[in-house]
Design a protein that fits this description.
heterodimer; A: 115 residues; mainly beta; six-stranded mixed β-sheet; four-stranded antiparallel β-sheet; B: 118 residues
Chain lengths: 115, 118
């Protein structure tokens, strides 16, 4: 598959442990955040999203936390499995009014699950 | 549904050559996008389209052209390939209400085209 990120930060996790992936954003006007998962050789896949009027949202085995005070977003994966090995991207949307909303992707974090 | 289909998967071009990256979606999405992904970097928007016959520039449009003659297809054209265009290209689509990105309509991505220009 493609070398998505040769110099990405990497998180090594033991199978069964919880993973926490962090993302900092810079625009305080961002009002919507999305986490994507990208497996080798594939395009990004939607995992979970959160609006800025929330500070926590849970999905299946995943939880997204939003701290607007410090402009920080995290993705927690419970009981990490080998299939969770991938690159994870956060994305933010800044409302743009008449100019349209702007979607910006972060640089990504590689998660490696050790058996 | 096949989702978003991109062809080819891999391509090597010589400097100055041209090529078209194909993208098709069968979800009747009105919005389509082209992104490039460089190693260690996030996705950068090249061009996007809000519907057939309508396209607009994204963040990094120089060196590329697009067309949207049908809802399903959104090809990306490189006229004079340069080494700086070596990248992985992703096409995406979603179903948006008029006026902007739908908060409940995440992007659906294809599996990418890896392009090397030498």
């Amino acid at each position: 598959g493609e070398s998505v990120g040769l110099h990405l930060p990497t998180l090594s996790v033991q199978e069964g442990d919880n993973s926490i992936i962090n993302c900092a954003y810079s625009n305080s006007a961002s009002d919507y955040f999305i986490w994507y998962k990208q497996e080798s050789g594939k395009g990004p896949q939607f995992i979970i999203d959160i609006r800025s009027n929330m500070d926590k949202r849970q999905g299946q085995r995943v939880t997204v936390l939003l701290n607007k005070t410090v402009k920080h977003l995290s993705l927690q994966i419970a009981a990490t499995q080998p299939g969770d090995s991938a690159v994870y991207f956060c994305a933010e949307i800044v409302p743009g009014g008449a100019a349209g909303n702007k979607l910006t992707f972060g640089g990504g974090t590689r998660v490696l699950v050790k058996p | 549904n096949a989702g978003v289909t991109q062809t080819p998967k891999f391509r090597i071009l010589k400097i100055g050559q041209s090529m078209t990256l194909q993208c098709a979606q069968d979800m009747n999405h009105n919005y389509m996008y082209w992104y490039r992904q460089d190693p260690g970097m996030g996705l950068k928007l090249i061009y996007y389209s809000v519907g057939a016959g309508i396209t607009d520039k994204g963040e990094v449009p120089n060196g590329y052209n697009v067309s949207r003659s049908t809802t399903e297809d959104f090809p990306l054209r490189l006229e004079l390939a340069a080494p700086s265009q070596t990248s992985v290209y992703f096409c995406a689509s979603n179903l948006q209400p008029p006026g902007g990105i739908s908060y409940n309509s995440p992007l659906h991505f294809g599996n990418g085209t890896r392009l090397t220009v030498t």
